[in-house]
Request: fold
Amino acid sequence: MSVGIEPVRQLFRDLQDEIEARLADLDGEGAFEGQATSLPHGGLSWPRVLQDGANIEKAAVLFTHAIGLSLPAAATDRNPHLAGQPFQATAISLIVHPRNPYVPTAHMNLRFFLVGSTGPDRDLHWHFGGGFDLTPYYPFTEDVVHWHQTAYEACRPHGDVYARLKANCDSYFYLPHRNEPRGVGGIFFDDWIEGGFDASLALVASVGKHFLPAYAPIFERRAKMPWGEREEAFMLFRRGRYAEFNLAVDRGTRYGLQSGRNVESVLASLPPRARWTYGYKPTPDSPEATLTSRFLRPRDWLKVVDKSGD
Reply:
């Protein structure tokens, strides 16, 4: 297969439909809404958002195919040689903010950039990026192990890359101003071209296809667990950390804002509610303290068998 935008674009559109349908099923009552709109220089933006559902407070599954004259600075900071060149980019990005604090927030982003001239003397640059990660509030060891085991299975047919992609995820989804990870990680990659276009596309497709098997069983296990004001208050506090990462650290948010896309779509990943409590410290040995003491640190989750954290 020659390098091109269309097979990637179709993969992401198919994933959008598949994931949207399954999340609506997990919620049980809500429906996704949103309209496709054309972009200024060509391409398509199709945000799909579910709000105020029975089990999901907010979920967004966003598809974009953008055509532009030059990349935003957020995309060229690490690749300055691509500045000022025409490009096409396509991506799927999704976020799930559940109602029940025992259900983790989950995120996935997959993207593809094709940069350079398309004329007869074309000099094209391309690369993939993305991954998925999990942000629990009241984590369970079996859930986190399942998440990472499924991430490993997504990588396994494509070489010995899981450990590297996990380390990338631990490094990227980190709040330096808090000196803590955002969640329990997953897999993450940038500027991916290894093995050529076909092999890279196969890896991206595998990651996309493994998101629902990684997340849906956790959601179904935890969505009916009883919870009260204490658990909800802690979830909202931790959502504040999530918002901090997206607004202060995330390159994807900067890219979206710099590209001139609809601000509502760019910020759709933010939680619908969050709180900031000055100087909060969890009670020692409490379930809330367990999050930071046992889970918010890099670990080899494939080797964790102890269920005492449950």
The mean pLDDT is 92.
